[in-house]
Amino acid sequence: MWAGLLLTGAVWLSGASAWGQDVITVTADRRGEARDAAIIPVAVIEAAAIELVGAQHVSELLNRTAGVNINRGNGAEHLTAIRSPVLTGGAGAGSFLYLEDGVPLRAAGFANVNGLFEALTGVAGGVEVVRGPGSALYGSNALHGLVNILTPDPALTSSRAELELGSFGRARASGVLARPGDAGSALLAVEAQHEDGWREDARLDRVGMLARADGMAGDVRWRWSAGMVTLNQETAGYVTGTSAYEDRTLSRANANPEAFRDAVAVRLALRLDGEWGAGWSWSLTPYGRGNEMDLLMHFLPSHALEESGHTSLGLLASAARDFAGGRITIGSDYEQTSGYLRETQSRPTIFSFVQGDHYDFDVDARVVALYAQGRWQMGEHLALQAGLRAEQTRFAYDNHLAADTVGRFLRLGDRSDSFETLTPHAGAIWRLDADRSLFGRVARGARAPQTTELYRLQAGQGIDGIEPETLDSVEAGYRQSLGDDGGLELTAFSMAKRHVFFRDVDGFNVTDGRTRHHGVEAELDYRLAPAWRVNLAGTWARHSYDFDRPVGTASEVIRKGADIDTAPRWLWDARLLWQPHAAWSGELQWSHTGAYYTDAANAHRYDGHDLLALRLRYAPTGRIEVFTAVRNLLDERYAERADFAFGNERYFPGEPRAITIGIRVIG
Q1: Within a 10 A sphere around the Cβ of 230, how many other Cβ atoms?
Q2: Contact indicator for 117, 231 with CB cutoff of 8 Å
Q3: Residue among 169, 191, 187 at smallest CA distance from 51
Q4: How far from 438 is each of 63, 435, 488, CA to CA, in Å?
């Protein structure tokens, strides 16, 4: 046990992304391949790094990887960017695919911009991040990238208990009970988080539970998992006014103390794997999920109550054929979902926000997909990969209110809509020698519209002409293993997105938007000396509009070539890591967010910020660890998110210096 504990320091010192030939990724093909042989670059965050980062918010963990920029909202809320600007609304919900062991956390048309609050990252066995379009194995929502949360393997996990206390009434506790065995292995994990909130009326309570069991039934390997997350959150919204985040009194205030978000999500999955014939293997994963969420829409004048949820049943099925020098995979995905949304305004009519029911509808959805993917070794140095996915998404919409326009709200009559996508990809890797390789890939990603984009309309809007968004991507990179000294990966990308769908400031739907995205990502892990390492995840990227859109508000006029709002060109996360011996380790982290525009016309901007964090760990015995972290070490006044809307600059203010201290007991 002591030896295993010592190794966690070495893994942690490699930073967020693990390196080496023994690092196996499972996201690109669901069956596992060495990271240094992957044609699709995958960032890997191992369990030891998750444990030692001790993230209070998922952004702390994922922002340690290149190309990722998770904007932290209040409580568990967030907005995501992966090779993209920070996206909101339907685009923010539908452009990123969040998975648990390869199974989507939410149905494709029912995604949530805050979807990662349903992920059990605190007790995960690892996290894998794919930047850019996913492979043929993943469909709608794997547009700009995907995040796959891996549950811990019961046979390889140690039991443990952890308690952490800190500033602003924070308390975080977790426990893992693992029982490995020859006939089968099982695991039960629980994580709980509470904080009073550093802002007024911003309390958070979140509880997650995970169960997993693995075993054999004859020649069939099986893995069963179940998860549940509950969230009860009092929400603090934006503060308004130029540089309002610099005023601590104003930043702590909450203009909407009545705002809240309550949610529950449950899921079940059973994976079955077997073999037949010469070189053939098969996999079946039936799964089910359900979730509900109530939200007070404090960010609108209506302060309406939104009630939403959906339940799904699905099946992932595939067969693979291994042969000399390669593998072919064919498969099919099927999912049936029933969802609902209700929006009700209890306060008196204000402007065009009328008192009463705004929306009340159900949507039944069906997604069917077929795909094929292959990899071929074309000699000692060259490997090729290609894949193709065909997917159909069908919605049946049932409106429970009068089909009419009431105030600003347009309620369509009952209808059905269907969307088809075809997403190919092809790539190659050329091994220069045992440690160095070049890789490249072309791919198309696509997403069907979200149900809220189709059926939650406003007066004057329509959905005729809506097509699935497509993203065409080209990337090329260089990868080098430095052995025990670390590793390096450089990737350049260029992407063009078409049929971008959004609602402009005048309230009209835009169905033919176009954007461009190009940049360079770098990941470096390097041992400076036996006790010192440096780790860097850096990104330079430009995200721009590729069309013109005149509107009535000058700050929201879109011009071809202008930067998309909330798209910093520079992002990096650098860490200096120290481990003089097994019992002691530390990390000094420098996170940089560059300047970015906060409106479409590029008339207002946020200057960016730099943050330092310090983490220390001491393990006096093989079973006990004491750890502490100081976030925002220099007490910087900054904004987690800056925006210009309704004629005002507004911000989610960043948290002041915060200290936590905890203890971990390993069984």
Answers
A1: 15
A2: yes
A3: 191
A4: 25, 11, 12
